[in-house]
Specification:
Length: 141
């Protein structure tokens, strides 16, 4: 986890420099934008109000001993071209396949478990609706 608190000295240095671009928000989209701008030769500062950068793509320990993904599963929406162009693997990016990919608990004790296994998905969705279980494969593109 990357953390930085600004001292008076570092805040002054940040303020005194002339930037070509300021990115407000150190989420994954802001960081991607900053990387492309910097790669294009611009001087870029990213400003983030939280103690951690990455936005929805972070995993945090919200309860001692328990780590939660904010929305890291959405990394699948990150275009492979961005991953390749910014050489993210060289900087530590590892994409892990999730199987199962989704667990949704219900208040009544039931749950829905989904993943890449079509038979598992069908049996899980059938617990709630046979019609939905039959329609689900058709909804995937």
């Amino acid at each position: 986890m990357w953390r930085r608190s600004f001292t008076t000295t570092s805040a002054t240095a940040l303020k005194d420099k002339k930037w070509d671009a300021l990115i407000i928000g150190g989420g994954h989209n802001g960081l991607t934008s900053a990387a492309y701008l910097a790669r294009g030769g611009l001087s870029v500062a990213v400003l983030e109000r939280r103690h951690i950068i990455g936005g929805a793509a972070v995993t945090e320990e919200l309860i001692p001993g328990f780590k939660f993904s904010r929305c890291s599963y959405l990394q699948s929406l990150l275009r492979p071209a961005v991953i390749n162009e910014l050489e993210l693997a060289k900087h530590g990016l590892k994409l892990l396949k999730r199987n199962p990919s989704s667990f949704t608990p219900c208040l009544d004790g039931r749950y829905l478990l989904l993943g890449p296994d079509k038979d598992l998905n069908h049996s899980q969705i059938s617990k709630f609706s046979q019609a939905d279980a039959e329609a689900y494969p058709k909804s995937l593109f």
